[in-house]
Amino acid sequence: MTSPTTLxxxxxxxxxxxxxxxxxxxxxxxxxxxxxxxxxxxxxxQTWRNYGTNWAAKYAEFYLLRRPVRQKGQxxxxxxxxxxxxxxxxxxxxxxxxxxxxxxxxxHIPALLAKLDAGADVVVAERSADPGGDDGQxxxxxxxxxxxVGATTVDDVESNxxxxxxxxxxxxxxxxxxxxxxxxxxxxxARCAAKKLRIDSIPVPFRERSDKSDALGGNTSGxxxxxxxxxxxxxxx
Length: 237
Hints:
32% of the residues lie in helices and 17% in strands. It is of the alpha/beta class. It has a single domain, classed as Alpha-Beta Complex (Spore Coat Polysaccharide Biosynthesis Protein SpsA, Chain A), CATH 3.90.550.10. The chain has a seven-stranded mixed β-sheet, with helices on both faces. Helix 5 (143-149) packs across helix 7.
């Protein structure tokens, strides 16, 4: 029996120093049914170039979607990745979304897929505790949003790290979402709840963003994102 084909959508912004670690983590799973699409918001540190050189050129199952500078933001990025999925020649039976800044550990992909295999329509990797917690219990800081979207079986409704069946995505029509920023995560889950899809979760440890990650422009030499922007403007980047 042929394994379902899964597309892992990884969104990045200025993650040149950590993207290799994320991609290697996916490769280490040695799952031939996994394809990977990196959606890059035209990173000033040229994360997209690093990816194209080190991964997409070497492995047929890796793809790159470099987005123009206009319409940046998580909402636009996730929609672009899902649109690519729907238009791809390969029919993907399952889709995983995750961040490219090391906060989402690829090692949990098999557990997410196992929940789909067990009958879930959507599976959320639920971060188990916030930094500083001393009892290892969820802080439930997403409680209000949780109630608003109706996804009461999941505490962490703002987790990027999720798995969807293709049927679930077809049902919620993600390309018609309106959010331009991180709120797309709750909007998508609200649609899943409204469609009465089976929403499940797996517990994962809370992971801090790597100190090498430069999504906010703070760690790249030359003055961070602003320095890179200035270099690009004068043709030096």
